[in-house]
Design a protein that fits this description.
The protein is of the alpha/beta class. The chain has 7 helices and 10 strands.
Amino acid sequence: MSNPALSLRAITRIYETEGERLEVLTDADLDLNPGELVGLVGPSGSGKSSLLHAAALLEAPNAGEVWIGGQNGLALSEGERTALRRREVGFVYQFHHLLPELDALDNVALPRMISGASHKTAREAAEAQLTALGLGGRLRHRPGQLSGGEQQRVAIARALVNEPRILLADEPTGNLDPATSDQVFEALAHACRGAGAAALIATHNHELASRMDRVVTLDRGRVVPFTSA
């Protein structure tokens, strides 16, 4: 069996505010295998976002290791960690965070250019991603000219344009109506499977989660298999 695309080891995350101490993750472990789609479910406040942000090297946990491509990202310098994240990880938020002044093509091309690609190469890669997600006819539209589902598909294309080995998504369909949510999930799953990317997708929608390869949840700060009541 191939090595995991992502390994989280003993991730602990503690928040302290106004003298209160809240430990949302406690020695959390998770392996994510290449090409695998994993659903992450759990109530609000259970630590799903904290786990995703630690996995993406966006926030440093209080303790633990995040192994990506044979490297513990938390042991790297800030610059090395940023480079690893840009190269290996794509992230999709619940709200698309597209730049309103740029059209869909340039929103998606931007991460590729930040990673060093020429404008032409980045736009070609962006066009391929958007076309694969059914947006070939909307390349020149700005976010305000797109529907909510289209905006989120642009955000998915942006997360995948650097061909990451890992896609992390935090409630990517949580702001959409049920029909659009289903369409966006199918587009995301198809894109990940087509690229062979490992994906960890947080969702409140258990029906969507059930269509993934496996489902996990957080129980007292630890990652455990999810079993329906």
